[in-house]
Amino acid sequence: MSGAVTSLATLPGLGPQSEAMLQGTGITSLAQLQALGSVQAHVLVKRTGCKPSLNLLWGLEGAITGEPWQLVSRHHRTSLLLALDQAERESGPAP
Asked: Which DSSP helix (H) or strand (E) runs through 92?
């Protein structure tokens, strides 16, 4: 997948609500999402005051890898949860 996708909502695992949450953080392209990674993007969404579910994390990872979010949650759940926990501890409490 290239960064030329015009709408994040067209990426696998994401939709209009996910796109709106990402845009609220300034993430507007696949290239930006790939550079940040799914965990950091999830942390940024949370820091805007949104209350993203873990499904957003799975969807973000799926958008980056092209893997359906259901497979991401099944195959990468533990590693993503550990990375999310670490990133949230390092970034401090959400506002």
From this structure: none
